[in-house]
Amino acid sequence: MHTRKFATSCLVMGKRSIKADKNCKAQTSTETLNKAQVSPFQSVSDGSILVAVHLKPGAKFDEIIEVGEASVSISVKSAPVEGQANSALLALLAEVTGAKKSRVLLKSGHKSRDKVVSISGVSLSEVESRFMSSSSK
């Protein structure tokens, strides 16, 4: 059994920046998974999907590089300065999944390359298939 612990803080992507959501309470959720079911995509009880991401800022293109066993590798053109790479990541994920930008939230990893992103308003199977079709590997 693997246990993943996601510390959640609530950030919302606006038109030009990421800001704290005043209505959201920070919480910690623990997901227990069987070893065979480890995936970068996890469904949460509130209906949202958590995606484990490894971000590579400063790349030539914004793209999903690979969907791995534990995380999705994504590159963005933006530099990791003042949240620019995080904003680019959230915009790319909203575009790929077809979710509204306000439904894509950075849950953890604000200053790390390894991040957890929450996506609401789309199903787990839909998110998985869109990531697989958008992946370059």
Strand count: 10
* Fraction of residues in H or I helices: 10-25%
CATH topology: Conserved Hypothetical Protein Mth637, Chain: A
Given the C-alpha coordinates, what overall shape results?
A: globular
Q: Give the CATH level 1 class.
A: Alpha Beta
CATH superfamily: YggU-like
Mean pLDDT: 81
**Low confidence ranges:** 1-9, 14-18, 26-36
CATH hierarchy: architecture: 2-Layer Sandwich
Number of domains: 1
Strand content: 35-45%
Biggest sheet statistics:
6 strands, mixed
Radius of gyration: 14 Å
H and E order: EEEEEEEEHEEH
Give me the number of helical elements: 2
Task: Give the CA-CA distance, first to last residue.
Answer: 28 Å
Structural overview:
By secondary structure, this protein is α+β, with helices and mostly antiparallel strands. It has a single domain, classed as Conserved Hypothetical Protein Mth637, Chain: A. 18% of the residues lie in helices and 37% in strands. The chain contains two helices and ten strands. It has helices spanning 84-97, 124-134, and strands at 2-8, 11-13, 18-20, 27-33, 41-43, 49-56, 63-67, 72-75, 104-108, 114-119. Strands 5, 6, 7, 8, 9 and 10 form a six-stranded mixed sheet that branches. A hairpin with a 5-residue loop joins strand 9 and strand 10 (114-119). The longest helix is centred in the middle third of the chain and has 14 residues, at 84-97. The N and C termini lie far apart (28 Å). Mean pLDDT is 81; it is low at 1-9, 14-18 and 26-36.
